[in-house]
From TrEMBL, chain A:
A GO biological process held by the record: phosphate ion transport
Entry keywords, A to Z: Cytoplasm, Phosphate transport, Transport
Keyword Transport recorded: yes
CC annotations in GO: cytoplasm
Name the UniProt record assigns to this protein: Unannotated protein
Cellular location(s): Cytoplasm
Keyword Cytoplasm attached: yes
TrEMBL record, chain B:
Catalytic activity: ATP + protein L-histidine = ADP + protein N-phospho-L-histidine
Compartments where located: Cell membrane
Limits of the Histidine kinase domain: 162-377
Stated name of the protein: histidine kinase
Annotated source species: freshwater metagenome
Name of the top EC class for this enzyme: transferase
Amino acid sequence: MTELRKSFHTELAEVHAELMRVGAQVIEAIPRATRILLDMDLEGADYMVQGDDEIDARCIAVEEHCYRILALQAPVASDLRAVITALKMTAELERSGDLTVNICKAARRIYGHEMNPKLRGIIAKMSEQAQQLFANAMEAYDESDPAKAAALDDMDNFLDALQRQFIQVIFESHAAGSIDLQVAVQLGVVARFYERIGDHAVNIGEKVRFLVSGWMPEHVGAVRHRMRQEATPMAGIPIPTQADRNHDS
Amino acid sequence: MPVVYLIVGLAVGLLVSWVACRHRSSFIPVAGQAPVPVSAPAEVIEQRDVPEVAPLSVVLDALPIGVVYADQNGLVVVRNRMATHAAGARHGDIIVNEALEGLLRTALQGEERRQTLDLFGPPARVLLVHAQPAEAGGAIATISDITERARLDAVRTDFVANISHELKTPVGALSLLAEALADSDDPDVVTRLSGKIVKEAERLTLAIEDLLELSRIELGGDSNRQEVAAVRILEDAADRVRGLAERRHIRLEIQDNGPTLAVVGDRRQLVSAIGNLVDNAVKYSEMDSIVRLGVRLDGDRVTFSVSDSGMGIASQHLDRIFERFYRVDRARSRDTGGVGLGLAIVRHVAANHGGEVKVTSQEGEGSTFMLSIPASPASVAASQADNPILAAG
């Protein structure tokens, strides 16, 4: 292996390590944001909003690093997939960081309103589940483990179920008069934030599967599309198939 | 064939005698040296053949703090186990490692620095990372787990704030009410104010009674130990709260399962402890719900449990609710009454009886408190007799 190639793999390892570090920050930010929301800690919310700038800056740095690798090293095969995966993951991490900030901003908007224990309990559960999903996604990436990555989908179903349950409790609480409409709407949006964090974790899992095998979830839809295209090459005018011809004769 | 046996036998014999010789050489004094008694402890400790690197890493790994040493070139050459797993979670360890690298870099430039990491986990940990230049060159960093210290600091500061809240608020109210009373001639106002004064005075009396009870239990002096049937404790505790439960339409359900269990303890203290748990369960439950009281034998311990399906307790409060005067929601504490000593009393009663109290809870779904203390020897024997396997053993 030439010296040039060796430094290339060191660079890939650096990108991987930096993504793991940013991922660790996001995993830590999820319960922190939840505590800020439940305690209505405005000072903590400001702190988190500022902290997100760091995640953004680091994601941009990783992205630029990836462009540099692509331009200067022209990687192929699994190396190319590693760089592309890293590029796509920066977007997922950056967006997830933003979502934790959005949770903190929601604390500002519902400040002064009380939430009943049922609502608080489900928020805590959604937070735990979203954090667990994200931690598993980053582990799958760290170990390049497609099985762990594929399992994320099932975990996400549980988070989705929690979100639906939460929306139901919001309706009930509003009907019982324990929260007003403004808070109800804000909490509905908060539920969406957690659910989206889970979706980003699932996306990371899909990137890991692409990294290992080149598989993308869009392939399923793409195959369907291609089959439809082959069946009808000229839009709207079906070409008689062999079976049709046999039927006619 | 016999030749092969002979050769193998010879080889094994030689090996055994060689090993025996080597062993003997390190214990038996060689002629010409001063004779040393074989049993002398100094000789045993001072074994020079032992390689030094392996035990050092064993020693380092046993340390309760993380130690990392980087040489002049910034290469980490020593790192013990605690330094790798200080956070107890994978993502936490990554965060610790990043902080560690940053501090080591500044330490290599000759600057000593420390950083506190407040990690949410799970597990939640507070870690202090400290790096300084090493005398022999390079830099050395330590990672200490200060979670417990941080918790105790919080306990101390909260204690002062809470006790002043619980004791000063009624006193402040009393003096304000008395002033208003002195200025008023209107008989209606006088009646209303004096009624409030009585209420505040009652509250203060209650607080002082609880405090006295707690200190009495803490001292553990006048405890009156006797064998008490476990289910009687539950019944007496339930009776104390029945009035409140009926007002709130809450059913108290006592689950009495199978053999009569008994404990040896101070009946008054135990009833007071379980009574406090039931009282809380009723206060923090919704109207028209059920509070379940149970008792069961776990090995040689009797576990009393009190479960409700009320508002529950958020996880960050769970390990603090047994502190004196601790309140999950201070704003609402006056609605529910009490001064925040109930669970502290429960914990001390458990400790007095050589037991412990535990809680599991989910906010919005309810809580279960479990108090377990040693069972009376008779109950353990009876339960073993019931169980043919144990009885045979």
